[in-house]
Amino acid sequence: MAQYGSRLVFPIDVKKKPWEQKLPLHNRWHPDIPPVAEVTVGEFLRIEMVDFSGGGIKQENSAEDIKHADLSIVHYLSGPIRVLDKEGIPAMPGDLLMVEICNLGPLPGDEWGFTATFDRENGGGFLTDHFPSATKAIWYFEGIYAYSPHIPGVRFPGLTHPGIVGTAPSMELLKIWNERERDVEENGLKSLKLCEVLHSRPLANLPSTKGCHLGKIQKGTPEWERIAKEAARTIPGRENGGNCDIKNLSRGSKVYLPVFVEGANLSTGDMHFSQGDGEVSFCGAIEMSGFLELKCEIIRGGMKEYLTPMGPTPLHVNPIFEIGPTEPRFSEWLVFEGISVDESGRQHYLDASIAYKRAVLNAIDYLSKFGYSKEQMYLLLSCCPCEGRISGIVDAPNAVATLAIPTAIFDQDIRPKASKVPVGPRVVRKPDVLKCTYDGNLPITKNPSAMS
């Protein structure tokens, strides 16, 4: 008889710590992290994963766990998984690994998630100069829908996706990553004017032994010490895919990943129930544990055939993504525009990041007129199915970015109208998000023309 259903290759028990799992997890990229499982192309596979914090963020009525989160541990990944063709020959450097996402969702019995902002002194985020405090909202899932008691009057279907899908780097590529990111961290404040406006620090997350988990490699051994000092953090997306946080990579999507080491060594994690474009609050999707069911194929020689290097070596390539056919449908949107002029009124030249910051701030201030706190709307725009666009990048000096918000996610009409904004206790949205105090002394950006 034919076998039906997926083969579980990476199980997770949410009642256990990351280091207590049946198969060890890892939270760094390095070619010498050994695979924990082996699969063949065409197999229907199931991979389970913890949330990015490994259970460190709790389903509790407090944001203290966010304020004091250990960011050296992120992200806990399931893998690496070695991929073979039907003849038993592994994927080889220069190939493309096609990963088809067939199904995904929360782990049974763990149907909840969270959205948060890190404290400005411990991670920050896109708008950390406006919102320096650690905050948190807990979400509960009803099938495809999410709602939060901390952001009342909002309910929406999630476009569930893994934030991280990637292959292991080669040593040559790992060296390229570490050198260029170290240069940004050491010299970026002097050379990158954008840092003055987007206040999040550090500028890069360099290799560190603190919080490092390397799968099967035993901590404290000389091998562990060597790899931990070289291994790349999983925070940014890179040539191997990794933490791209592309919300549309859901059911039916295909990811074409470059292969840099024998076997590809595929890893995945950072499952999101829903996310807005940009994940602006940094801890900003609805983070959750989850499962991923997938199939793999190997395209021999696919890197040279399909990917054009955008850099000095053949390794400077980027994945290709094919969006799946399943996503929430919305017909009415309210769209907010931003241009590349910062809050002080200073002009920036075709800067899409400044323009997007303005669009998000405009949306937050507008939506707060309908009974919400600005913190509630900051978290909502990070995790609801809103759509960000670079609408103009050639009309000097102003880049134009837009943020489109589906109006149907609210239980009230949020469009401008002649009768003005509704007033009264009916529209006051309580309770607010969970919030901690900000104890740092960095300056806070205020809009001089906006009302409090």
Automatic annotation (TrEMBL):
Pfam families according to UniProt: FmdA_AmdA
UniProt-listed Gene3D superfamilies: Acetamidase/Formamidase-like domains
Protein name: Formamidase
Taxonomy of the source species: Eukaryota, Viridiplantae, Streptophyta, Embryophyta, Tracheophyta
GO MF term set: hydrolase activity, acting on carbon-nitrogen (but not peptide) bonds, in linear amides
PANTHER family: FORMAMIDASE (PTHR31891:SF8), FORMAMIDASE C869.04-RELATED (PTHR31891)
Native organism: Manihot esculenta (Cassava)
Stored SUPFAM superfamilies: Acetamidase/Formamidase-like
InterPro entries from the UniProt entry: FmdA_AmdA, FormamaseFmdA
